[in-house]
Amino acid sequence: MRMKTNRLMDEIRSTISPEMKMQMELSVAIANRIYEILESKGMSQKDLARLLGKTETEVSRWLSGTHNLTLATICKISAALGQDVIMVAGYKKHKEYTYEYRPMVVAEHHA
Questions:
Q1: Alpha-carbon span 70 to 63, nearest angstrom
Q2: 97 CB contacts (<8 Å, ≥6 apart)?
Q3: 22-56 in b/e burial notation, b at 16+ Cβ within 10 A?
Q4: DSSP letters along 13-81, please?
Q5: Residue 1 above 80 pLDDT?
Q6: Is the dihedral of CA 71, 46, 33, 3 positive or negative?
Q7: pLDDT at 78
Q8: Residue 77 CB contacts under 8 Å (≥ 6 apart), including other chains
Q9: CA–CA separation, 30 and 38 (whole Å)
Q10: ∠ CA(3), CA(39), CA(77), 5° rounding?
Q11: Which class for 75: exposed (0-12), middle (13-18), buried (19 or more C-beta within 10 A)?
Q12: Any idea of the CA torsion for 25, 76, 33, 97, to the nearest 10 degrees?
């Protein structure tokens, strides 16, 4: 069975640069990889948000596949999950990195 296509969407897709198409594909692939890791560990987006000290809404936005994650964020996610989210050909890690979330303690103010 062939999927129906929308002429307007086909027109829009045809105007997207190759770089933008690649970015969209990689964003979805990264989000899918994070989901795979979460699933393999029996974790939810909420668990990841808690590990990173972020809101579940923010993590959900990251994992939509449309968010442009920074390298810093990808590294934080990898460290929190204890697995590489992305790997670069030819790069060898010399040691494992772990990320430990420590909530900030706010001192009480006494007047």
A1: 13
A2: 75, 78, 79
A3: eeeeebeebbebbeebbeeeeeebebbbbbbebee
A4: HHHS-HHHHHHHHHHHHHHHHHHHHHHHTT--HHHHHHHHT--HHHHHHHTTS-S---HHHHHHHHHHH
A5: no
A6: negative
A7: 95
A8: 34, 48, 52, 62, 69, 85
A9: 12
A10: 105
A11: middle
A12: 130
Query: Which pair of tokens denotes residue 9?
Result: 């969407």
DSSP annotation of 84? -
Task: Calculate mean pLDDT across residues 69-82.
Answer: 94
**Taking 60 as the threshold, does the pLDDT of residue 36 lie above it?**
yes
Q: Please tell me what DSSP assigns to residue 107.
A: P
How far is 69 from 77, CA to CA, in rounded Å?
Answer: 10
Q: Which two tokens stand for residue 61?
A: 């936005």
Residue 30 corresponds to which tokens in the numbers above? Answer: 């990264």
Here the tokens at position 32 are 């899918």
